[in-house]
């Protein structure tokens, strides 16, 4: 997969897993590793890739 | 109460603010007055009832088996060798039983906390239905199967973050008290997490030694398939002193004695940090790492540019009021990044309402002052002002513009990347 397609997939996953501002609010400390948030994005990329492969 | 409360025009327009069951007409009037007084000022948000509050538990204060040269915790004046009483954790969780909480096991090194007391904290977190998450930031050197078993009751809602700056020579500000490298012990801890399939985040502090070594830093993260996030945080240490109450190793003191134009020997300037981030991004995307782990702060900036909520306080209006810190002496304050004297709420028994407590502390006044500058900035809706504490440090030495410039540069960079990606087919 090209770099551009990777970035596009990442941006699409951020959009898909994102929550509109003002609806879910928490502050994480600078030292907190937001694993949950990051993991949701990665799982969405995996899901989208799997869906695209099965379509093809 | 000062007008830190941000009854933002945008929030009011969207009318998404739920009714506060405990809200009085007096507080409503206060919010309205705040809005009128500061109608043109973007400000940091008050804590709503449904908001999650993060509680940093300084389980062992500044006590750590490492003596990292840049550690801010070890520069604070602690009363010395005290640890948190689990009953204080229980009281704090109970005090805020009506709202979601996230407990962050912090230190010093949290795995130096006695195991029987940690079991009590885990039990509190497991039982309390309002504790929606538990996280731990550790150097991982003491991490083993025994600890993971102890955390099992909360593993479904637990995140583990490991501090490692990169390969051994990049990580070399992080030595133990004998001046020996901690790298192999940290990597061993990461191995324990990998072998037990624990999804993990890494925090890498960007220091002088990181610059130009971005490929090796990302390669290290990629070695561990359980690593789902790498967060690159800048080390903006200038004008830093040492706490007289904390013993430092000779190596740490020697490192502190050295310096360069910007500040401490390990410190980076905002522009150097920005350049390093851009290099990291190029490597992250070019090598396909973006499918393996998330790179922060890029996720936060993207979320912000796309109008989405981010939990990263430096790109959100949800900031210090949403963070509580419990210290070993039973005192409670706002975020531990803030000067404790500016952001201390007093003893746990004195804390009832986080909005009132934060509104009454000096940090809120500083935040309010800082945000005046942001009011007319075109980047406000994405930047959100950054970290109150960091900005204050830059403001004190009249270098705030450098901080703003790096943030604008990063937002522009990510904006261009999003635009280019959206054009790609």
Please summarize what this structure is.
Chain A is mainly α. Chain A has helices spanning 3-17, 35-55. In chain A, 64% of the residues lie in helices and 0% in strands.
Task: Explain this structure.
The complex is a heterodimer of chains A (56) and B (425). Chain A has 56 residues and is mostly helical. Helices cover 64% and strands 0% of the residues of chain A. In chain A, helix 1 crosses helix 2. Chain B is an alpha/beta fold and 425 residues long. Chain B starts with 8 loop residues before the first helix and ends with a helix. The interface between A and B is large, with 40 and 69 residues.
Question: Which terms would index this structure?
Answer:
heterodimer, A: 56 residues, mainly alpha, elongated, B: 425 residues, alpha/beta, ten-stranded mixed sheet, 15 helices, 37% helix, 13% strand, disordered N terminus
Trace the largest sheet of chain B across and list its strands: 7-6-5-4-3-2-1-8-9-10
List segments of chain B where confidence is low: pLDDT < 50 over at least 5 consecutive residues.
1-41
Q: Percent of residues of chain B in helical segments?
A: 25-40%
Query: What's the main sheet of chain A like?
Result: none
Give the % helix of chain A: 55-70%
Compute the separation of the termini of chain B in Å: 53 Å
Q: Secondary-structure element sequence of chain B? A: HHEHEHEHEHEHEHHEHEEEHHHHH
Average pLDDT reading of chain A: 86
Rg over alpha carbons of chain B: 21 Å
- Kindly, what is the distance between the CA atoms of the first and last residues of chain A, rounded to a whole number of angstroms? 15 Å
- Report the total helices of chain A: 2
Q: What share of residues are in beta strands of chain A?
A: under 5%
Number of strands of chain B: 10
């Amino acid at each position: 997969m090209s770099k551009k397609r990777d970035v596009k997939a990442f941006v699409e996953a951020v959009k898909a897993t994102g929550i509109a501002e003002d609806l879910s609010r928490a502050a994480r400390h600078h030292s907190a590793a937001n694993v949950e948030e990051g993991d949701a994005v990665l799982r969405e990329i995996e899901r989208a890739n799997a869906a695209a492969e099965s379509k093809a | 109460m000062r007008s830190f409360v941000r009854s933002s025009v945008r929030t009011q327009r969207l009318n998404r603010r739920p009714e506060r069951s405990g809200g009085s007409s007096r507080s409503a009037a206060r919010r309205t007055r705040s809005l009128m007084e500061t109608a043109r000022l973007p400000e940091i948000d008050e804590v709503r009832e449904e908001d999650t509050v993060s509680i940093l538990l300084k389980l062992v204060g500044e006590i750590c088996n490492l003596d990292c040269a840049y550690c801010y915790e070890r520069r604070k004046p602690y009363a010395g060798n005290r640890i948190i009483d689990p009953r204080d954790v229980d009281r704090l969780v109970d005090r805020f039983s009506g709202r979601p909480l996230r407990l962050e096991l912090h230190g010093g090194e949290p795995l130096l906390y006695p195991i029987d007391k940690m079991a009590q904290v885990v039990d509190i977190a497991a039982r309390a239905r309002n504790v929606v998450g538990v996280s731990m930031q550790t150097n991982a050197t003491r991490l083993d199967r025994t600890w993971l078993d102890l955390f099992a009751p909360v593993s479904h809602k637990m995140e583990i973050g490991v501090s490692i700056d990169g390969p051994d020579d990049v990580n070399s500000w992080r030595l133990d008290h004998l001046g020996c490298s901690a790298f192999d012990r940290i990597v061993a801890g990461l191995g324990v997490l990998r072998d037990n399939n624990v999804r993990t985040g890494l925090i890498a502090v960007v220091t002088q030694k990181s610059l130009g070594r971005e490929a090796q830093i990302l390669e290290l993260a990629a070695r561990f398939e359980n690593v789902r996030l790498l967060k690159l945080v800048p080390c903006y240490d200038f004008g830093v002193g040492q706490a007289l109450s904390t013993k430092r190793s000779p190596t740490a003191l020697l490192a502190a004695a050295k310096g360069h134009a910007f500040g401490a020997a390990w410190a980076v300037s905002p522009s150097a940090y920005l350049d390093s981030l851009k290099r990291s991004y190029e490597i992250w995307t070019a090598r396909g790492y973006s499918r393996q782990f998330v790179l922060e702060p890029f996720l936060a900036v993207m979320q912000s540019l796309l109008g989405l909520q981010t939990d990263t306080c430096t790109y959100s209006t949800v900031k210090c009021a949403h963070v509580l810190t419990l210290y070993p002496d039973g005192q409670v304050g706002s975020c531990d990044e803030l000067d404790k004297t500016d952001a201390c709420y007093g003893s746990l028994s004195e804390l009832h309402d986080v909005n009132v407590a934060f509104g009454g502390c000096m940090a809120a006044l500083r935040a309010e002052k800082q945000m005046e500058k942001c009011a007319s900035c075109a980047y406000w809706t994405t930047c959100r002002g950054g970290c109150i504490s960091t900005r204050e440090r830059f403001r004190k030495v009249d270098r705030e513009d450098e901080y703003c410039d790096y943030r604008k540069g990063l937002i522009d960079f990510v904006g261009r990347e999003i635009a280019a990606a959206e054009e790609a087919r």
